[in-house]
């Protein structure tokens, strides 16, 4: 049941505020104490290994920034299909975390089995609590996104991010690291902010009609928004079949800038944070070569840097730690509306399956 929406994907984008509230209700109590399973003891963990495929992998990449910056822990992130055959040495103090919406992805399950008996502990972040990955994990953290029907992952991604962030905050607290200002309290404002962005979807529809004419689209982001550039490009290519690539903004001049001309739109994901000026200077390099920039930012960023930009998508201000979660919504909307403009099958893109149980 699509609940009045045209597609399951639209329904699932719209459900994100509710899904995140459900995840917060499960892992954050009324006094803003983080209530993760007690077996998760970060004081004993020496390093984290995060493993997943596709969109889950990008959630892990964003979490790397959080675990490193907030909890000051060494973190390794890998795609499951590489991890399993590389047979990496696993030190005894490793917490290995496997992130999977379905809990059945063959490569992720094989990577988990490789770690069994080697890692100190195996944690599974899954949306399906009775899945294989849940069954074979020492600690299971259901993400509480609710059933996700559309092949392209949306609400599972943002719920994965919320729980990975809560883990990083818990790790920081247990390891005597100061928590970032106003966290975890500011997590409470996220569902309302996501709702605002979802309600403001018309600003994306016009942009998407233009994007639908392109052959190639580039996404740029820096810091913990770099994984979101990768996610934005993945979502766009799988739904609209337009070739899209995500890059770390600073990598632009090491190759990809050769692609830029007036036919290549560049989506720049840049809230007004500590790295804003750096990303803006990369964006200006794009514009100097005729590239059409779509800037995704907040009101302050729009005021500082909209000059010469083809389109600006303005999001509400949010605690900068939380930007990967809020900015996931325009990335999803861009993919969704571009696919609509192209007339592709949004919920069932060609060649894709919801659950990849063979490698
Ligand atoms: C992209 C997408 C896929 C999945 C990937 C992993 O929109 O949905 O990239 O994220 O196949 O699936 P799970 O999370 O079920 O292991």
Notes on the protein architecture:
Its main location: cytoplasm. Catalyzes the first step in hexosamine metabolism, converting fructose-6P into glucosamine-6P using glutamine as a nitrogen source. It catalyses: D-fructose 6-phosphate + L-glutamine = D-glucosamine 6-phosphate + L-glutamate. By secondary structure, the chain is α/β, with parallel strands linked by helices. Helix content is 42%, strand content 16%. The strands form 2 sheets. A 5-stranded parallel beta sheet has the order 2-1-3-4-5, with helices on both faces. β3, α5 and β4 (121-126) form a beta-alpha-beta unit. α2 (16-27) packs parallel to α7 and α10 (226-240) runs parallel beside α14 (328-342). The site of fructose -6-phosphate has 16 residues, from α3 and α10.
């Amino acid at each position: 049941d699509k609940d009045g929406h045209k597609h399951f994907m639209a329904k699932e984008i719209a459900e994100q505020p509710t899904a995140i509230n459900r995840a917060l209700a499960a892992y954050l109590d009324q006094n803003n104490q983080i209530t993760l399973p007690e077996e998760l003891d970060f004081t004993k963990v020496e390093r984290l290994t995060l493993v997943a495929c596709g969109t889950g992998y990008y959630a892990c990449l964003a979490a790397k920034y959080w675990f490193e910056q907030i909890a000051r822990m060494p973190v390794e992130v890998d795609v499951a299909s590489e991890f399993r055959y590389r047979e990496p040495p696993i030190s005894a103090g490793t917490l290995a975390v496997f992130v999977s919406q379905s809990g059945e992805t063959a490569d992720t399950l094989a990577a988990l089995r490789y770690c069994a008996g080697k890692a100190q502990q195996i944690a599974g972040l899954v949306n399906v609590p009775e899945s294989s990955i849940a069954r074979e994990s020492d600690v299971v953290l259901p993400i509480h996104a609710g059933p996700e029907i559309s092949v392209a992952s949306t609400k599972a991604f943002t719920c994965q991010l919320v729980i990975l962030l809560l883990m990083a905050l818990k790790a920081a607290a247990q390891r005597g690291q100061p928590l970032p200002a106003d966290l975890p309290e500011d997590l409470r404002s996220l569902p309302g902010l996501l709702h605002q962005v979802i309600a403001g979807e018309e600003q994306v529809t016009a942009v998407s009609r233009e994007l639908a004419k392109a052959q190639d689209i580039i996404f740029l982001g820096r810091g913990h928004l770099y994984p979101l550039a990768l996610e934005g490009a993945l979502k766009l290519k799988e739904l609209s079949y337009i070739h899209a690539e995500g890059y770390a903004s600073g990598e632009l001049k090491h190759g990809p800038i050769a692609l830029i001309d007036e036919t290549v739109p560049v989506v720049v994901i840049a809230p007004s944070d500590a790295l804003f000026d750096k990303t803006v200077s990369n964006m200006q390099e794009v514009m100097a070569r005729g590239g059409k920039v779509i800037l995704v930012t907040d009101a302050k960023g729009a005021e500082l840097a909209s000059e010469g930009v083809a389109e600006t998508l303005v999001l509400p201000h949010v605690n900068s730690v939380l930007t990967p979660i809020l900015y996931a919504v325009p990335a999803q909307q861009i993919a969704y509306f571009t696919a609509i403009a192209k007339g592709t099958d949004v919920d069932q893109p060609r060649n894709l399956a919801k659950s990849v149980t063979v490698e």
